[in-house]
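User: Show me a protein chain along with its predicted structure.
Assistant: Here is one chain, sequence first, then structure tokens.
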Amino acid sequence: MSEADETRFSLIMPFLNEAANLPATLASIAAQTVARDRIAFIGVDNTSDDGSGDVVRAWLATHGFAGQVVVERERSIPRALNAGLRCARPSDVIVRIDAHTLYAPTYLEAIAAAFATLPPEVWCVGGAPTPPEPDSFTSGLLAALYTNPLGLGPADFRATLAQPRAVDHVYLGAWRPGVLQSLGGFDERWLANEDSELSARVIEAGGRVYRIDARCSRKEKRGIAGTVRQWSRYGFWRAQTLKRHPQMTRPRHLATPIALVGFIALALSPWRAFALASYALYAAATIANRRRGERFCVTAGTLVFFPAVHVGFALGLLRGAVRTPATFQGGDGSEGAKSVATLRD
């Protein structure tokens, strides 16, 4: 029996009022090609009031998975993840699961194969989400944000993956046995971007993060305005991550605030016509890179939606650069978030 065939998994899934999405997500987990006796499922109910916990408990009772549902009463993703981690078996591969993501049947199989074949210093692997086929104007806009390079920029997940490769971060993530425990889990001071902060600690501690062909499809829950607010929040917490781990700063993180400041400077100057020209070039590039078959009304909407997301992220990043969150007062984030120096010693 190969190492990949012996891998055991602890799946940790935080959820909050996901009753509508859970059946499809849980069905995709039940369809995994690995044997069910190699899976322990840990659901973390972040105080749902729509019966989500009962949905997961009923699923566990009827589908033959070992596991449990625990309750984390403080609404916080990193706290919920750490609550699940405390219930996980230290000898298992830890896999983070999202409650509104659908997983290909080979998702866990791909993770097991990666850890069996990649070097031992690869501590974390994961895939990249694809948006579902849009069925409305709003879902079309959200899908375009992820498929058009003028949306989220030249993101790594758009690149063709011929072989696993080293990256800064992956979606969700899976970690070799003992890695998360050694790192102290997720830093509970981070109210967003906690996964990227953890990836930075993995790399600083001597590990590597690899993107692999682990396929999944993420359903966006937020509408148009909610997505703009979400990216503003991401920007604020990305700034905290970069302040703590400045070596993880990349040109893509700075491009949006630089472009925003430059655009405003041009708009307020005698050369304001160049600001209009720069937007016209951006709009032309957005149209040229639209997904094949995208409705024209969606493409027209992206000409406003994409800049709104960029401005939100840029303002969040700039605000985060000069502000220290209240969660940073009086603590180091949890029993976890152990320093890289401690791990290296």
